[in-house]
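Subject: for your reference before the review

Hello V.,

The reviewers asked for a structural picture of the protein, and I figured it would be easier to keep everything in one thread rather than splitting it across files. Below is the amino acid sequence we used in the manuscript, unchanged from the supplementary table.
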Amino acid sequence: MPKKRGSGRRLPQRNSHSSAVSHIRSVDGRS
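And here is what came back from the structure prediction:
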């Protein structure tokens, strides 16, 4: 992934984190 502006890098990073948290919470809830 190419390094973009702080704003551009911050947006995708936050989205990735949210997805990971959602996935972990989903797995934890199912388990």
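For the response letter, the relevant points are probably these. Helices lie at 6-30. Residues 24 and 30 are 10 Å apart (CA to CA).

Happy to draft the paragraph if you're swamped.

O.
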